Amino acid sequence: MIFDLHSHTTLSDGELTPLELVSRAIDNGVDVLSVTDHDTVDAYHELADSYDSIKLVAGVEFSTQWENTGIHVLGLNIELESEAVNTGTRLQSEARLERAKLIGEKLEKKGVEDAFAEARQLSIGGYIGRPHFAQHLVNIGKVPSLQAAFKKYLGAGKVGDVKQHWADLSQIIQWIRDANGIAVLAHPLKYKLTNSKLKRLLDSFIQIGGQGIEVVSGRQLPQQTQYLSQLCEQKNLLASCGSDFHRPSKHWADLGGFPPLPDNVIPVWDRF
Ligand code: AMP
Ligand code: MN
Ligand code: MN
Ligand code: MN
Fold first, then answer.
1. Bridge partners, residue 159, by sequence
2. Is 0.85 topped by the overall pTM?
3. CA dist 139 → 9, 11, 122, 135 (Å)
4. Ligand 4 centre distance from Cα of residue 11 (Å)
5. Non-local CB neighbours of 202 within 8 Å, separated by 6+ positions
6. Which tens digit of pLDDT belongs to each residue from 246-257?
7. Which of 17, 63, 138, 182 is deepest in the core (most CB within 10 A)?
């Protein structure tokens, strides 16, 4: 069985519509899929409750911060109609809008005119994010690529990396748990924390109700999988896996395109 519990659609910064995503997942042999757009569950409004050839698990990827680091927490197997999901996604969308205005102001000071208005034009629904600013910077020729836009303007520590608007980690976890979902720390190695800082993050995460980590996130090295599965075991966490698919490209894993979870961990789906 292939479980892919992390993916994005056009309702956040993915390139495929929800239906295109589901169809590609089926073609790739995925048995269980979670669509986990950034801070929104709007994709599920475009999907049926169930499909013959694939099982859907409702999910979301919340943005938040821990100390000074921007982090992402997946809510898996959440109840879409719950008050908590409703409130959580609404407040996070509002936070996105305020943040985008601030990113716009900061870019303006760097000589990028009308950045907010232009990014807004490029966005749909409740999601407006750094990828839209990146696209605008590419469109006006300030940078040659999205990667370059992040490197120069939007990535960690750069002028457009604004983190302070999000609900805090404990609030995010509370929303997920109130929606009867499982809170999973997404891609733990992407934050570039030292081993000891990552362990400290996991300790706080667990203390405030976090239940799992992504042991496999897209294509990764065997030693990374081994390291994360050991951490998972040591800290008694559940293990999740997913592609974090955004678009068909060499840079992202395809749907279902990642190594299996090792045997020494308890898969998060045991609790679904
Ligand atoms: P935001 O949700 O506004 O914080 O934007 C974060 C999103 O930008 C991530 O989910 C990625 O999809 C994308 N992203 C982050 N870093 C890069 C990068 N270096 N190049 C391209 N896209 C990136
Ligand atoms: Mn993204
Ligand atoms: Mn993420
Ligand atoms: Mn993601």
1. none
2. yes
3. 22, 21, 11, 6
4. 12
5. 185, 188, 210, 213, 231, 235, 237
6. 999 888 899 999
7. 182
